[in-house]
Specification:
It holds the Pfam family SNO. With 199 residues, the chain is an alpha/beta fold. The chain has helices at residues 14-22, 49-58, 62-70, 80-85, 182-198, and strands at residues 3-7, 26-30, 41-44, 75-78, 86-90, 102-107, 118-122, 132-136, 141-145, 150-154, 160-165, 168-171. Helix content is 26%, strand content 30%. The longest helix is centred in the C-terminal third of the chain and has 17 residues, at 182-198. The two termini are 17 Å apart. The chain binds glutamine (GLN).
């Protein structure tokens, strides 16, 4: 089984763990740098991106994780996870740093307050022939997509909410809270592709 980490410093860890186990992954909750050893993929969950950033620095996870992602570790970021992966953040908290890796600019909290949360089905042909289910909870908006990145899905009005770049997938929303597993399945697919190209 592929060994998949979930960054477990803060935020919505449990639902990712459930989806990944259902898909047959061996899940590691990442709280210390040594938990990164031997991972074949990682999920950066939703939560509060500035808090996760702070905790990554306190626990010495930020730099090794940044290196792993830059060297091709398959990575799925949801909501706060997308914010961490964006090369630039609008409305960042004071002193907030990003891991980077996705050539996009995101704006935090662009979909309004918690009570303005909503759910939609999105076309994401790269992920599935059938629409995927997306739950938006105070998510970031992808304001611009640079040359290195590409759009995976957008809302009907054109707002971009899912992006990819090589080994990285970033989502403005939460697939995991509705049990939507196809993005995680894609992540696992990337580990298999990487295994066979490493031999
Ligand atoms: N508003 C949060 C942030 O800026 C993200 C919300 C979420 O992950 N559900 O980090």
């Amino acid at each position: 089984a592929p060994r998949v980490g979930v960054l477990a410093l803060q935020g919505g860890v449990r639902e990712h763990e459930t989806v990944l186990r259902r898909l047959g992954a061996d899940v590691v909750l990442v709280r210390r740098p040594e938990h990164l050893e031997g991972l074949e993929a990682i999920v950066l969950p939703g939560g509060e991106s500035s808090a996760i950033d702070k905790l990554m620095r306190i626990f010495g996870i930020r730099e090794p994780l940044q290196q792993l992602i830059a060297s091709g570790l398959p990575t799925l970021g949801t909501c706060a996870g997308l914010i961490l992966l964006a090369d630039a953040i609008h409305d960042a908290a004071p002193g907030q740093l990003q891991l980077g890796g996705l050539d996009v600019v995101v704006r935090r909290n662009a979909f309004g307050a918690q009570n303005q949360s909503f759910e939609v089905d999105l076309d994401a042909p790269e992920i599935s022939e059938e629409p995927v289910h997306a739950v938006f909870i105070r998510g970031p908006l992808v304001e611009s997509v640079g040359e290195q990145a590409h759009v995976i899905a957008a809302l009907d009005d054109g707002r971009v909410v899912a992006v990819g770049q090589g080994n990285i997938i970033g989502l403005s929303f939460h697939p995991e809270v509705a049990g939507e597993g196809r993005f995680h399945a894609k992540l696992i697919e990337l580990t298999v592709a990487r295994r066979s190209s490493a031999t």
